């Protein structure tokens, strides 16, 4: 593990101190979300299983196109249209299956009990409306706040995310703010109704290192204060080490490994997880940066066996004909690989 990752992960035991007790806040079972297009059926999310408890953070990592964002959108039931459809599985949130909810019931849940932060703040904020209007909208819709009460809550939220001069910023438009300021505003909107679960999709991509560190620290503080469950989608293992209690590695629409954060960094078992770790910058600055050969498979034409077989250095004949299932090989550590003893 690189030095920065080692230090960050060392500060996290891999299991949260207080969170994790009781039934899962969110439990996803065999979730399948396919996109039907002219050239075929794209299996964007293909039998995904994971759970998140109150006060706990789950990181989902993997290359672009692996299904991370589509998994979050499936939980929110905001699917790509036309063509996006959930074809199987369960999404149990606080014991209730979201897939059995009506469209109106889901509107009551989104932005209220489940909130989401996206990476493109300019796309998620309306350029024609002030920040104040956009902060007050979910308060009015979900909590029935109006007038002075809604405005005071909006100002409180801006102070909570440490945005300077909230009285002035609340009258600003998105284009008048920096990327870091907009990201804080999106975070303020997300936590406005005090949700139980926060979905964060690459929320720090556009931020510089200093602002990123502040933003991550802010999210952790909010989580501790509110016992918030959080799913964090990212490409950055440094962020995972700092923020997440557990990690799920996704490839070709499937989760191929899950473990406590420190456990995954210390002992990645799936060849894909190991390959991702090998691609991280090393302590030796003269070392050549490694890459994973080949390309992810076409999700509309997935091979019959393991999706990683064509890129794997440990491939067996069985890997090309049978897809391994996610199996527990140690307490809390699951792997989908025929080459790992006790897996599949």
What this model shows, in words?
With 344 residues, the protein is of the alpha/beta class. It has a domain at 1-102 and 231-296 and 332-344: Rossmann fold. It contains twelve helices and twelve strands. The chain has helices at residues 3-10, 68-76, 103-109, 121-124, 131-143, 147-160, 166-169, 179-191, 209-226, 237-243, 261-266, 271-278, and strands at residues 26-37, 40-52, 57-61, 84-93, 96-97, 114-117, 197-201, 229-233, 246-251, 254-260, 327-330, 333-335. It has an eight-stranded mixed β-sheet, with helices on both faces. Helix 5 (131-143) crosses helix 6, helix 6 (147-160) packs across helix 8 and helix 8 runs parallel beside helix 9. Residues 13-19 have low confidence and may be disordered.
**pLDDT below 50 for ≥5 consecutive residues: which ranges?**
13-19
Q: What's the CATH topology name of the domain at 1-102 and 231-296 and 332-344?
A: Rossmann fold
Mean pLDDT rating: 88
Please list the strands of the largest sheet in the order they lie side by side. 6-7-8-3-9-10-12-11
SS strand fraction: 15-25%
- Give the helices and strands as they follow along the chain: HEEEHEEHEHHHHHEHEHEEHHEE
**Largest sheet composition:** 8 strands, mixed
- Helix segment count? 12
Count of DSSP strands: 12
Secondary-structure content class = alpha/beta
Distance between the termini: 27 Å
CATH architectural category of the domain at 1-102 and 231-296 and 332-344: 3-Layer(aba) Sandwich
What is the highest CATH level, the class of the domain at 1-102 and 231-296 and 332-344? Alpha Beta
What is the CATH homologous superfamily assignment of the domain at 1-102 and 231-296 and 332-344? P-loop containing nucleotide triphosphate hydrolases
Radius of gyration: 21 Å
Shape: globular
